[in-house]
Design brief:
mainly alpha; 6 helices
């Protein structure tokens, strides 16, 4: 897999996009949360890349990006807050989202 050289903003966009797809749909409210974190151009660029990746590639890129940007516990805390905000944006926090949250916490912490 090719090395990704994302900015921190692009990484956050990718992670939020990945988590938004945990229940296999990307709600407009979730899209709005992502766009509130990054500009539209970044969102579109990352969305195009995300659409071409499979689940395994996505996870590898996320892990690689978090290591590359040397996320510390505070960075991860902020990231997980953003993820939770994304999940709660549509007023539901379903089992798939909950599982995704726990899974990402486990592999990134």
């Amino acid at each position: 897999m090719k090395q990704t050289h994302w900015t921190k903003e692009e990484l956050v966009a990718y992670i939020l996009l990945y988590t938004a797809h945990s229940n296999f749909e990307e709600a407009n409210l979730e899209k709005n949360v992502i766009i509130s974190k990054v500009d539209m151009q970044t969102f579109q660029k990352i969305h195009d890349e995300f659409d071409e990746d499979n689940d395994y590639q996505s996870l590898q890129k996320i892990i690689q990006g978090v290591e590359q940007h040397q996320y510390n516990s505070n960075d991860l805390k902020l990231l997980f807050t953003d993820i939770k905000t994304l999940f709660l944006s549509d007023g539901e926090y379903d089992i798939m989202e909950r599982n995704m949250f726990l899974f990402l916490k486990k592999i990134l912490s």
